[in-house]
Specification:
elongated; 14 helices; single chain; 3 domains; 5 strands; binds zinc ion; alpha+beta
């Protein structure tokens, strides 16, 4: 029997179990088309367009005979079987297409089995699983919570492909559907308690679903919440961590505070001293240049491009160095951090600094040339 037929049988059985009569009949007809005429086009035509196979969801609200946890598994089963069926309907008898799907299921191991038991983050493990835990954070009281359904979603997403692989290889996909719908499948309860432990160790509280009404904080009932998707990681034990972006933002926010507390005042002082030395050096150079030009006049070859560039460099370079030195002295920020620090400022501040730098440069030129003239 082809994988295509196996999966049609599995999907039909699932729809039967959840009392989705309309779709069950549709799949039954696709199965007959395949068995009688080797016709997969009929099934394929139902993906895409309106009212397709891909946009119906199994839930008690849609009058299917499932509770919340069963609907999680039913939808994961349906989704994975449909993805495979859709691909297979292009080439239902192509063994390579079958192998490709089976292999992708096989490779997708559970996140818990994938990484070393005691080690660093599983984030970069080879198979690149991306199961995420949907965590609700309350901005009023700080509670972090995960609903029972979200937790089950994580477990189902983590395990479903492995289950399907096992079932298709041993040819008992109907039995898998039954075990999942009867909550008898091996490994689910263990995974559930493992995920619960990991969530709790990250300070996430497991709460009941609040149903179709607006999602709120279970501790203080606030609606001032946000949702983020946390990833499983092993840091001397399984735990969940907030998404990378959030984490790096939190680091950014903590940095300035941490630096002013811990001895980076040393670095600021060093920066300022370095800046001051630069200013003295650059200003001295400008005075010398001005004195030289005052005494000897401009080079004879004023029309020579090379001479003009040389002159520009002679005056311009010390000027740039001088401005840099002044900025470093005043701000205490090292020159390598200029770009990032500058970029964080408001537009008004950036324009202000730029205008002030130009004014300062002109003053410096005037002053340097006056001194240069006086020294002549
Ligand atoms: Zn709260």
């Amino acid at each position: 029997m082809t994988l295509y037929e196996q999966l049609l049988i599995g999907l039909r059985h699932l729809l039967q179990r959840v009392s989705s009569e309309h779709w069950e009949q549709q799949i039954q007809s696709d199965l007959e088309a395949w068995r009688e005429r080797r016709d997969a086009r009929q099934h394929r035509s139902k993906y895409g367009g309106n009212s397709t196979y891909s946009d119906w969801i199994i839930s008690s609200q849609n009058k299917h005979t499932v509770d919340d946890l069963q609907s999680v598994w039913a939808n994961h089963l349906r989704h994975q079987m449909q993805l495979a069926l859709r691909a297979l309907s292009e080439k239902p008898e192509d063994e390579r297409a079958e192998t490709k799907i089976l292999r992708s299921w096989e490779r997708r191991r559970s996140a818990f089995s994938r990484s070393k038991p005691e080690g660093t983050s599983s984030r970069h493990s080879a198979s690149g699983s991306d199961s995420r835990l949907r965590v609700v954070s309350c901005h009023s009281c700080g509670q972090k919570q995960v609903s029972v359904t979200s937790l089950e979603n994580f477990v189902a997403d983590d395990l479903i492909q492995g289950f399907l692989y096992g079932a298709c290889v041993s040819g008992d996909i109907k039995a898998l559907v039954d075990r999942l719908m009867d909550k008898q499948q091996d490994g689910v309860a263990e995974a559930r308690s493992e995920v619960t432990r990991a969530a709790e160790s990250a300070g996430i509280v497991v709460v009941e679903d609040c149903g179709p009404r607006t999602e709120t904080c279970a501790a203080c009932n606030s609606e001032n919440i946000s949702v983020s998707f946390w990833y499983l990681t092993n840091e001397g034990g399984w735990t969940f961590a907030p998404p990378e972006l959030e984490r790096s933002r939190a680091d950014e926010a903590q940095k300035p505070a941490a630096e002013s507390v811990h001895g980076s005042t040393d670095r600021t002082v060093t920066n300022r001293l370095f800046g001051l030395a630069t200013v003295v050096f650059a200003f001295g150079t400008m005075v010398l240049v001005s004195r030289y030009l005052g005494r000897h006049g401009f080079p004879d070859a004023t029309n020579s491009i090379r001479a003009n560039w040389g002159l520009l460099l002679l005056i311009g370079l010390p000027l740039v160095v001088l401005i840099g030195g002044v900025l470093t002295t005043v701000s205490g920020v090292g020159i390598r951090d200029y770009a990032s620090v500058f970029a964080r400022q408001t537009l008004v501040k950036r324009i202000g600094v730029s205008v002030a730098s130009i004014a300062l440069a002109m003053l410096a030129i005037l002053l340097a040339s006056s001194i240069g003239q006086a020294l002549r």
